[in-house]
Recover the amino acids of this structure.
């Protein structure tokens, strides 16, 4: 079973007295906090953090599907950086980010999707 880990977004006020009645959109700063899910093992967490840093995905799932030995992973990514590029180029981008890790794997199940098509 795969569990989606989505990005956490926090809106914080840039003014000293954040009364909702007198704040405009321009007074808010969008801050994103990316936290790897706690259920990931260390290898999954490494992959998750590497992809998160490079791609800033909307949704990212990483799962060791090898039975725990770390030889095969299932990765699902929905990302704005994939907008307007073919699935093959999306996969090549992910493969280039994880090339060192993939060299030691038996296999990879990769699903990618552009955020505007999700």
């Amino acid at each position: 079973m795969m569990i989606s880990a989505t990005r956490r977004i926090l809106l914080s006020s840039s003014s000293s007295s954040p009364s909702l009645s007198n704040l405009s959109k321009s007074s808010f700063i969008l801050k994103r906090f990316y936290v790897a899910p706690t259920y990931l093992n260390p290898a999954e967490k490494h992959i998750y953090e590497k992809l998160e840093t490079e791609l800033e995905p909307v949704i990212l799932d990483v799962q060791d599907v090898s039975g725990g030995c770390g030889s095969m992973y299932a990765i699902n990514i929905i990302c704005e950086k994939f907008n307007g590029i073919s699935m093959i180029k999306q996969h090549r981008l992910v493969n280039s980010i994880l090339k060192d890790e993939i060299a030691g794997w038996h296999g990879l199940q990769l699903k990618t999707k552009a955020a505007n098509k999700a």
About this structure: The chain has a mean pLDDT of 80. The beta strands are 5-6, 8-13, 28-33, 59-64, 72-79, 107-114. The helical segments are 42-55, 87-97, 99-102.
